[in-house]
């Protein structure tokens, strides 16, 4: 029987080379300190340095980091967070977790990202924060959004879970928000198996964020001497993930560069294919294309054509307001409806070779 080659996937786990990873893992696993410790703090420092983002706190997940960010912004019962439905669910389930109301702003139909004008129209005196997701790794129009947040005195939180290394006007995403979060879950650009990071612009918030990360306690102070005044969570990163994170950062440029090379190749080639359009990229934005976003008049046809040559393609996410739990917060979002109808993600990561990407373009450019 002919064995079919495996499909080219949309997402893939990236691990450091075995000969580097295994001895390092062994040393941490048998080193006596596997909980939060020096490997986590070294990872935080390396992350801050590489992306120019001060105040990095490593967490057990991006979701945990988001929860802390929302709490620091004052989210709770009786408050509102302006957010996007075009994201993975944790962006918005976390808002519900705080007791706040998620207010869904519309998105730009050409990018899938939150539309600053829609955000501005939804601000009320109950708004505590705006949450902007750099969907699929394409930066939001951060200049305008920062201005909206400043005009109204609300916090801007960047959800950079898809956008590690992406830049806007020469600076890393995460540098524009009052806080930002990253995810190192299994299939992101970079994984610590599960893990995340919170970055904070205002360094005076760091001690409170650390307490929220760890039950409300302060690390390093004997438990017999601390008093919890605000309950925190168990969102800290452990040393095994911290060490893996450090090793991953050493190779991250190579991986990101390949995502970018493939993304730019598609941007150029799909620009002239009738019925297809690359997602728009705002002036000054440099995406890192966690997923490649193609907008197609017939997205099912794109999926079928790629399946026939052994390549996965899909919409991947479900706008969050489609879920029953968000039904009370549904509102008309014509931009999102248009974006989602046309959306199809195609493989673009480090595992897509020059030959693969040519085959993908050829299969879709055929009349
Ligand atoms: C946009 C977005 N935000 C937040 C998260 C949460 O990250 P994590 O899975 O690390 O908790 C994810 C990941 O699934 C995500 O895609």
Automatic annotation (TrEMBL):
CDD domains in the cross-refs: AHBA_syn
GO annotation, biological process: polysaccharide biosynthetic process
Alphabetized Pfam families for the sequence: DegT_DnrJ_EryC1 (PF01041)
GO molecular-function term, one example from the UniProt record: transaminase activity
Assigned keywords, A-Z: Aminotransferase, Pyridoxal phosphate, Transferase
Residues forming the catalytic site: 188 (proton acceptor)
Cited InterPro entries: DegT/StrS_aminotransferase, PyrdxlP-dep_Trfase, PyrdxlP-dep_Trfase_major, PyrdxlP-dep_Trfase_small
Domain of life: Bacteria
Residue(s) carrying N6-(pyridoxal phosphate)lysine: 188
SUPFAM superfamilies: PLP-dependent transferases
Family, similarity comment: Belongs to the DegT/DnrJ/EryC1 family.
Name of this protein: DegT/DnrJ/EryC1/StrS family aminotransferase
């Amino acid at each position: 029987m002919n064995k079919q080659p495996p499909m080219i996937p949309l997402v893939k786990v990236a691990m450091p080379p075995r000969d580097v990873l295994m001895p390092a893992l062994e040393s941490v696993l048998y080193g006596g300190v596997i909980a939060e410790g020096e490997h986590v703090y070294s990872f935080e420092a390396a992350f801050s340095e590489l992306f120019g983002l001060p105040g990095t706190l490593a967490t057990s997940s991006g979701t945990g980091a988001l929860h802390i960010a929302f709490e620091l912004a004052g989210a709770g019962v009786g408050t509102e967070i302006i957010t996007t439905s075009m994201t993975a669910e944790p962006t918005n389930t976390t808002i519900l977790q705080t007791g706040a109301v998620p207010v869904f702003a519309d998105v730009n139909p050409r990018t899938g990202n939150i539309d600053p004008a829609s955000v501005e129209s939804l601000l009320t005196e109950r708004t505590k924060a705006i949450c902007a997701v750099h969907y699929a790794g394409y930066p939001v129009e951060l200049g305008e959004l920062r201005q909206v947040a400043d005009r109204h005195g609300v916090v801007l939180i960047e959800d950079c879970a898809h956008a590690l290394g992406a830049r806007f006007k020469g600076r890393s995403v995460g540098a524009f928000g009052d806080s930002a979060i990253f995810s190192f879950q299994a299939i992101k650009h970079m994984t610590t198996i599960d893990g995340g990071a919170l970055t904070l612009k205002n360094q005076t918030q760091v001690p409170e964020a650390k307490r929220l990360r760890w039950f409300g306690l302060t690390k390093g102070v004997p438990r017999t001497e601390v008093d919890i005044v605000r309950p925190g969570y168990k969102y800290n990163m452990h040393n095994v993930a911290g060490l893996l994170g450090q090793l991953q950062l050493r190779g991250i440029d190579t991986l990101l560069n390949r995502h970018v090379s493939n993304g730019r190749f598609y941007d150029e080639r799909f620009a002239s294919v009738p019925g297809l359009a690359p997602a728009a990229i705002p002036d000054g934005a440099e995406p890192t294309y966690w997923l490649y976003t193609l907008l197609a008049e017939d997205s099912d046809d794109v999926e079928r054509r790629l399946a026939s040559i052994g390549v996965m393609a899909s919409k991947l996410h479900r706008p969050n307001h489609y879920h029953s739990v968000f039904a009370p917060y549904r509102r008309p979002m014509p931009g999102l409806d248009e974006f989602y109808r046309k959306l199809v993600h195609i493989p673009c990561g480090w595992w897509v070779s020059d030959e693969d990407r040519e085959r993908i373009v050829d299969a879709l450019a055929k009349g």
